């Protein structure tokens, strides 16, 4: 029976992974502010006729983003950006259903393993808060500024990855219990690597956060050279790693290199070839995204790579701490 719970958690993880990639496309196509109202239930249904489309278009035309950047958009252009934001919100709603309904079923059937009920409830609470945080993020770009706050964008992404990490960890934990009962669990006792793995995870989360800052400020579209930044090591302008786009990108790129080296050292210690290979792939995707001036397919793959690297690192951390 626990196998069903593990599969359910893996399905939820995959859906959050897909939503993170769709969220990246939504951001990169500047679609996130196309829907100016938050309708948790009725918003799942897109406009079904020209009158409804015109209504949504008219609402968007009142937004700061339209006046500052998208004043050239026709209704046909608007439909394109509307699609990505609608799809992003739809997948979020589907994740809520796919997580909540089976959880209720497992609870009614008393199939939740002992000690896991409050953990599942905690993930559910995080999911509900993610919807509120998402709207809070969008709202920041509907008043005076023509874009969302990059701090709120980062919070939205980090919370999504927190939910993903919790579900992935729960799946590993329950699957580990099941394998232990079958006598098939391998002994990965590597206590000396625990702090190394935890430090690597902290660095990765910090790097991802600065990646969100970089995306939110469109900082990836400047200084499209590597390793130098237009023939110099540091960008011009005031050295502010939180708000100045050039310095935000500088901080992100060198955080990424530091994180990559730290995770590579961890992968060598635990003999994890998949983790090491993913580090090289992710750094390569990041540099390629920068050199391409944030070409959409590469940027989306870079976001996906971050989640995959997080997944492998969490697996390593679990193996080093469960004993």
Describe this structure as you would to a colleague.
- This protein has 323 residues and is mainly α.
- It has 2 domains: 1-185, no CATH class; 186-323, no CATH class.
- It contains 10 helices and no strands.
- The two termini are 24 Å apart.
Overall number of strands: 0
What share of the residues lie within helices? Answer: over 70%
Portion in beta strands: under 5%
Number of domains: 2
SS field, number of helical segments: 10
Q: By helix and strand content, what is the structural category?
A: mainly alpha
Point out poorly predicted stretches.
Answer: none
Q: Which helices and strands, and how do they pair?
A:
Blueprint: H1 2-28, H2 50-61, H3 64-68, H4 75-108, H5 117-139, H6 150-182, H7 194-216, H8 245-270, H9 273-291, H10 296-321
Helix pairs in contact: 1-4, 1-6, 1-10, 4-5, 5-6, 6-7, 6-10, 7-8, 7-10, 8-9, 9-10
Main features:
single chain; 2 domains; flat
Summarize the structure.
This protein has 323 residues and is mainly alpha-helical. It folds into 2 domains: 1-185, no CATH class; 186-323, no CATH class. The chain has helices spanning 2-28, 50-61, 64-68, 75-108, 117-139, 150-182, 194-216, 245-270, 273-291, 296-321.
């Amino acid at each position: 029976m626990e196998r069903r719970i593990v599969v359910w958690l893996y399905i939820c993880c995959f859906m959050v992974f897909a939503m993170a990639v769709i969220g990246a496309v939504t951001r990169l196509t500047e679609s996130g502010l196309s829907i100016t109202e938050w309708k948790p239930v009725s918003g799942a249904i897109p406009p079904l006729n020209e009158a409804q489309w015109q209504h949504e278009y008219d609402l968007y035309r009142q937004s700061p983003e339209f006046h500052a950047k998208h004043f050239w958009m026709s209704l046909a252009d608007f439909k394109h950006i509307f699609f990505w934001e609608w799809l992003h919100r739809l997948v979020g709603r589907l994740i809520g259903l796919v997580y909540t309904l089976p959880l209720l079923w497992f609870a009614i059937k008393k199939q939740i393993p002992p000690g896991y009920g409050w953990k599942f409830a905690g993930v559910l609470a995080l999911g509900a808060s993610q919807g509120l945080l998402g709207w809070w993020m969008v709202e920041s770009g509907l008043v005076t500024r023509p874009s969302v706050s990059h701090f709120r964008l980062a919070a939205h992404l980090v919370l999504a990855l927190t939910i993903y990490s919790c579900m992935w960890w729960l799946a590993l934990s329950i699957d580990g219990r099941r394998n232990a009962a079958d006598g098939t669990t391998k002994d990965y006792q590597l206590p000396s690597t625990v702090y190394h793995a935890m430090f690597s995870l902290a660095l990765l989360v910090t790097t991802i956060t600065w990646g969100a800052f970089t995306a939110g400020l469109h900082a990836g579209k400047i200084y499209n050279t590597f390793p130098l930044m237009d023939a110099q090591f540091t960008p011009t302008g005031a050295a502010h790693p939180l708000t100045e786009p050039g310095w935000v990108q500088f901080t992100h790129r060198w955080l990424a290199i530091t994180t990559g080296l730290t995770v590579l050292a961890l992968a060598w210690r635990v003999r994890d070839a998949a983790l090491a290979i993913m580090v090289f792939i992710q750094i390569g995707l990041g540099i390629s995204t920068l050199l391409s001036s944030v070409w959409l397919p590469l940027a989306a793959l870079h976001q996906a790579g971050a989640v995959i690297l997080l997944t492998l690192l969490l697996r390593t951390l679990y193996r080093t701490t469960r004993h």
